[in-house]
Amino acid sequence: MHHNTEGDKTVFVTGLALVLAIVILGMMFPEALGTIGGKAMSFLTGGFGWLYNASAFAFVIFCLGVGMSRFGNIKLGEGDPEFSTATWFAMLFSAGMGIGLVFWGVAEPLNHWLNPISTIEAGSVEAAEFAMRKSFLHWGLQPWAIYSVLGLPLAYLMYNRKEDGLISNLLLPFMGKEGPRSGWGKLINVLALFATAAGIATSLGMGAQQINSGLSFVFGIPDTGMVKIVMVSIITVLVILCTVTGMQKGIKYMSNLNLAIAAAILGLAFVFGPTAEIMNTFTSSVGNYMQNWLSDSLAIGNDPWYGSWTVFYMAWWIAWSPFCAPFIAKVSKGRTIREFVLGVLIAPSLGSFVWFAIFGTMSLNVGVEAAAQAIQSTSTALFVIMENYPMGGLISVLIIFVLFTFFITSANGATYVLGTLSSNGNPEPSTKMKIIWAVLQSALALVLMLGSANGLSLLQTISIVAAFPFVFVLILSMFSLMRFLHEDYPAEAKELPSAEQAG
């Protein structure tokens, strides 16, 4: 594997310049940029919503198909997996969802309950069922399939074909050997860098916003710019410490800590919340989800609800994929393709379902008035709802803590991915490069939070618009993976590893 470090500067410099340009424009002309971003966004969700929904649906079918096919026993790379199954799961979960789940666990079911599609009466039992089913849809199999459809071919490319882990290399079958180094290849890598930097800054911003809201709600610490700067600075120092110690120690330790705290939160919420009702909601929502999965996955109508929720989510997960997929590929070495599919698709989806069943039930249980009050501000919704329960204060404190640790893990995974993208696919980017990105992404998140009222949503919109071409990259990745597998394991040869050999 050779990494020519000459050509890599273009991707790094161009990607970084793009991000900075957008941020500066956003601070100087927030209204104008907001209008342009909004128009582009509604054009994409309106005109291509069907494409987002249909491709996310296809990705789920594809991943399950590959996992169950004769290729399922193929191992990604040699040797045993680097991480235990529990740690592996913790890393996937922390990087792939983490902050988002905490941010939306209460707010999303409440939003759907009080503002469902126009044919359902707001605040009704039917609306509550709709709220849970759609939350499951947005955080279930689809996002993980979107990550897998990029992550699995990347892992195969890096460990079985010994190529650089650049997203442009996934298009080798379509571009010829020189393709990934051509202008098109560079463009894809620049867009990946941009989508990752913008996406992670948005998430970190949301996380910091929510930590600050929580601190002021629970401890009365003021919600000011100064507090945010101090808080993000402390976190950045921790991220750098974690990054310097590497995957084996830093990220591994943080991810396990995340999972432990998240489990404690779920346990407390389950015991002190409406336990029987949580079990009922979980059971019936999983049933509703499975029964309506086909129609819900492809549902798209004239109701504006679809564009602002389902399509928006599918687009956001696709924008988030250039960050999650390389990270997932990195931590999945030594797993078989079947384990990859089960571990990346099924396990985290179940985790999301449990999270939403518990927090969704707790929020739908407080009544319409309290719910309406809670969703006035998304970043405090969770803390407002927890006030209605015994031990709610303790749960709130733990949530602030888990937001901190999730923030560190996400930022950590991102420094690694951004470092790799910036150094021509080098699987071990230099410490300097990782520190540069650790500081940059935190600075970006801060500037967006302090710069303008809707800086975060503006950057989110722009990263989704920039990630539109990734729909096609993801579709082509499926074909690339099949092409690689059929070339390496032709049907005639019957040389596939059997379960015994793989085990």
TrEMBL record:
PANTHER family: HIGH-AFFINITY CHOLINE TRANSPORT PROTEIN, HIGH-AFFINITY CHOLINE TRANSPORT PROTEIN-RELATED. It comes from the Bacteria. The keyword Transmembrane applies. Keywords: Cell membrane, Membrane, Transmembrane, Transmembrane helix, Transport. It comes from Parendozoicomonas callyspongiae. The chain crosses the membrane at residues 12-30, 50-71, 83-106, 141-159, 187-206, 226-245, 257-276, 306-328, 340-358, 393-414, 435-456, 462-485. This is BCCT family transporter. It is found in: Cell membrane. InterPro entries: BCCT_transptr. NCBIfam families: bcct. Belongs to the BCCT transporter (TC 2.A.15) family. It holds the Pfam family BCCT.
